[in-house]
Amino acid sequence: MNAIGKCIFVVLFLEIAVSICQDDNSYKTCSKQLTYTIRNQIQAPTFEYSLQIPFCHQPFIRIMERAVNMSANYKFTATYFPTLGYFIDAINGVRGFYTVNNTWWQFLKAPDIMLQVGVSSYYPTDGDHIIFNFTQSGGK
Ligand SMILES: *[C@@H]1O[C@H](CO)[C@@H](O)[C@H](O)[C@H]1NC(C)=O
Ligand SMILES: *[C@@H]1O[C@H](CO)[C@@H](O)[C@H](O)[C@H]1NC(C)=O
Ligand SMILES: *[C@@H]1O[C@H](CO)[C@@H](O)[C@H](O)[C@H]1NC(C)=O
């Protein structure tokens, strides 16, 4: 192959790689898997759901989007902040009012490890069990 041929080959290869990354189904071939639980036991509507989700190297917000695609039980709203990324406002319409009654969504790794970073910065590892737990307590 001459230089031009090599160049065309590299460009084609990159295009194929990019199109694989953009394919919504590509994550199914990723070997990592996590469990994602959303739990609200403190006010109506109470719920608890868990899903097994395959994933590649991605921040957790992408897994949350995938959960929405996979199941009608997973809905969320979020606000995007410069630098910090997404902050989760509500899950299934349930919203924390920390200043009113200390309610908020805890972002946890099972069983009860509080994650110190947000959903845009946390990159899950294989076998993780991530929980969004609606809670009512001081010390947010
Ligand atoms: C969710 O589905 C839509 C429509 O098929 C797709 O465009 C989007 O990439 C999917 N999101 C994720 C995170 O898989
Ligand atoms: C907390 O306050 C909000 C806003 O007033 C209310 O909708 C919600 O039911 C309250 N939750 C609890 C557990 O008191
Ligand atoms: C989840 O929230 C409930 C209700 O506030 C609380 O009792 C429980 O300890 C929390 N779970 C974890 C794992 O922190």
TrEMBL record:
Residues 1-21 form the signal peptide. Residues 80-135 form the Transcobalamin-like C-terminal domain. It comes from the Eukaryota. Pfam families: DUF4430. The keyword Repressor does not apply. Keywords: Signal. This is Transcobalamin-like C-terminal domain-containing protein.
